[in-house]
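Many introductory courses stop at the sequence. We go one step further.
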Amino acid sequence: MILGKIIEIIRSKGYGFIESEEGERIFFHQRWLKNLKFRDLNIGDDVAFMIKQGPRGPRAHNMMLPKDVPPTRQERIAELLFK
């Protein structure tokens, strides 16, 4: 998953833009949120997401809060081994 920050929200149209950690501007639509409500998002919120290429450039899909990102398999194994 990629991390970024919401930099623009167009509520009347149901979409917005994220700035990735690398400084890339990425489009998102309210349909692509996962366990989030569009109305609860605000400029400056940190989000995690996957990127898919759209006809006009990259799109953020499966957006969620960083705290909701499931651990990777390696992280789960390490957690079990070092308890």
